[in-house]
Amino acid sequence: MVDEPASLDDLPDVPNELASEHPEVWERYSDLGRACAEAGPIDGETKRLVKLALAVGAGSEGAVHSHVRRGLEEDVDPEALQHVATLSIPTLGFPTAMAARSWIDDELE
Asked: Where is the composition biased (Acidic residues) (predicted)?
């Protein structure tokens, strides 16, 4: 799995506007994402779970939604996606983990 950027049709409004107004910026951003995904030995499903965990740690609801959607499209087990929130409890704290759980559930429902 190469972590392809979302198509413009799949982007939320604000990033879609940026991509439309500054396609060269969006292209370079997408290139960076691909290069980072290809820079190491981590397999596709693990990359998706790591990226989800990073989104959880950053407290980014939109990124959590995006990585859960993309994980489901890539046939990542929904229980594995939800496990990321559980794993975050001792490191990030219960409130953060519960927020992450609710954001993950938004996409699993």
From this structure: 1-12
